[in-house]
Amino acid sequence: MKHTNMKQADLFEQEQDHKGIVYNPKYDYKRLKKQKDRIWFLMLGASSWLTLREISEKTGDPEASVSATLRMFRRESEGGHTVMKRPRGQRQRGLWEYKLVENTSNEAS
To answer: What's the pLDDT score for residue 92?
Structure first.
């Protein structure tokens, strides 16, 4: 597994990353950190493209949360990783699949 110069703690342990009116670190921080970890490690180790449903089934996290987490991985504050997206099957069906490519451009020597 390749590592960026960001420590995992930088990616997954910042309480201020989660924003919203209903977010309360006391109740939500640990749950959301574990969710982000599950999705990160699944996607990083996935050898094939996965749909939101497949990710949800493998992690136990809701599809909407999976989608939001994948978007979060693209943020510079989260490492600026690439989350590729392509249609699965006929484009008209609107089914998409995803693959994570870790940003290693700042990798320490």
So the answer is: 93
What domain range includes position 13? 8-101
Instruction: Identify the pLDDT of residue 25.
Output: 86
Number of residues assigned to the chain: 109
In a domain, 2, yes or no: no
pLDDT at position 2 is 47
Q: How many domains, the chain?
A: 1
In a 3-state reduction of DSSP, which class is residue 101?
strand
List strands edge to edge, sheet with 82-87: 50-51, 96-101, 82-87
Tokens of 41: 């490690």
Q: How far is CA 95 from CA 15, 71, 103, 107, in A?
A: 33, 17, 26, 34
Q: 83 forms bridges with which residues in the sheet?
A: 100
Give Cα 94 to chain centroid, integer Å. 21
> Are the beta carbons of 33 and 12 closer than 8 angstroms?
yes
pLDDT along the chain (109 residues), means of 10: 48 53 85 95 96 98 96 94 96 96 74
